[in-house]
Amino acid sequence: MAQFELSDAVIPEVWGPYLANLSTKTNRFIQSGITTPNTSDELNAQLLGPGNIITFPFYNDLTGDPQSWTDKSDITVDGLSTGNQRAMKFRLAKAFGATDISSLGSGLKGLDVIAQRFGAYWNRVDQNILLQILKGVFANADIATAKLYDETVKAPSNTFGASGFLAAIALLGDLQDNTVSKIAVNSAVYGQMKLLQMIDTVQPAGAVVPINVYNGMRIVVDDDIPVNADGTTTAYVFGAGAVGYATAQPENAVETERDARAKGGMTNIINRRIVSTHVNGTSVAKTYIPSGQTPQISELALGSTWESLTDPRNINVIAYKAKLDPQFVPASASSATDSGKASSSGSGN
């Protein structure tokens, strides 16, 4: 394969779709099926439209008791109940650049590296957005009551293990055996799961490489999920279609900028994008007001940002919070408590 050159890639009308496609293909949450890309033209139009919130409708299942069938009274007709989910819309921009002298001095083609790695950069951003949303969703008291199993409160002397995991999954009630399909954990959790012999390796039909599963659920390992210094961490269990995702390329999504005088001469690559990630069954709270011109990623981890649409049991994500055995707590673990402000332990990439 020929060397990937900047001149081959950074043509704005080509590079924008290329970058979006690359991000989708390499995003581990999308590839595992945890996050489901939405290709609806209506949703994409909302992403490029005004405002900070996008809406998409839902309908509730049929409910109510049947009535007795007689010829003494008419049959009462009920209707469908509907509503709208409100999802956050982020307008994001990032620029990377390299000076002429840095390329000459190091022998490294800095702009080529930037072009090659921009997709991986956006993957990390998307993963962080999802994890911040999950923190905020489970910081909402109503949702946490129904969908969070906190073993540090229920059984403080017990550490992360199979019994707690199964107790968390049991929060789905009679849907637990046919709903959950994926688990996302920090690599430290993955290590303890191996010690506890919780992991099986299977070879799916048609797959090139085997995958690791627990009780038939695929395990996705991501070190952006934080582990605190006391060993407290959260694992997330997802059902099919639990998280929606959409992205759009605005006008001037990609630009290159040449500044011949700055730092002796430098070239920058600028990328703009609009993205929305959403836990289905939740909604941006009606009381939410962005602190700036566009929503801030830091606002996602606040429980006040989110609300449950109807019954939080219909949300297809479960959180299992527990402590790891001390030998599995990474040296880089955050010293903060699990408040949504902790940094991740490791890069995850």
Main traits of this protein?
alpha+beta; 11 helices; globular; five-stranded mixed sheet; 349 residues; disordered N terminus; seven-stranded mixed sheet; disordered C terminus
Structure description:
There is one protein chain. This protein has 349 residues and is α+β, with helices and mostly antiparallel strands. It has one domain. Helices cover 29% and strands 27% of the residues. It is built from 11 helices and 16 strands. It has helices spanning 6-9, 12-26, 28-31, 41-48, 100-106, 110-139, 141-147, 151-154, 162-169, 176-179, 187-195; strands at 35-37, 53-59, 82-88, 90-99, 148-150, 180-185, 200-202, 211-214, 217-221, 232-239, 243-248, 254-259, 266-279, 282-284, 306-308, 317-323. The strands form 4 sheets. The protein has a 7-stranded mixed β-sheet. Strands 1, 4, 11, 12 and 13 form a 5-stranded mixed β-sheet that branches. The radius of gyration is 23 Å and the shape is globular. The two termini are 24 Å apart. Residues 1-9 and 336-349 have low confidence and may be disordered.
